[in-house]
Request: fold
Amino acid sequence: MTGVATRKRGQARREALVQAAAELFWTRGYDASSLADIATVARVPLGNVYYYYKTKGELAAAVADLFVHQTETLIEEVRSETPEPRRRLKLMIARLQAGQQSRVRHGCPIFAATRDFRRTLPDQASRAAESFTLLTGFIATELGRTGLRPAIALSRARAVIADWQGSIALAHALGEPPVLAECFARMERTLGLSAA
Reply:
């Protein structure tokens, strides 16, 4: 096998392990997910896992990086669609809404990571939480572009992220999708995107 093909296969395995870890940490929890479980879901022989990640903590760091990368990509996609701030905010809400079914079933994967990592892996927890910082910053920036003072824009951005996260938690706990669905209309009102 050529060096290029070996590198591609190695990269594919690395990505499969991170995706499997992210899924299992979300749906089962960090403590309940073993490296063997992750290897099985990723379809990577357990012995090969250690070539890519020596510990579950290293995988947790890769999962936190994945969340940040996904959030950055989401923000860049929204920015590339339109320069108009209100339209960007509506697009962001639509993107967040697209994942609501899985959030009702399992809660928020980013919150789960920050909660589960916090006790023993504080750096990984902080890194995962950067996703919330990025979303809040994006919303505050776009609100600022509509003419709101920075402090008010930041306060409203935090309010909608808090509402979204609280609604995910409540919808998940109660098993009631409407709890989360209602949140998105409130987000639009809080951001001044729709009539009250």
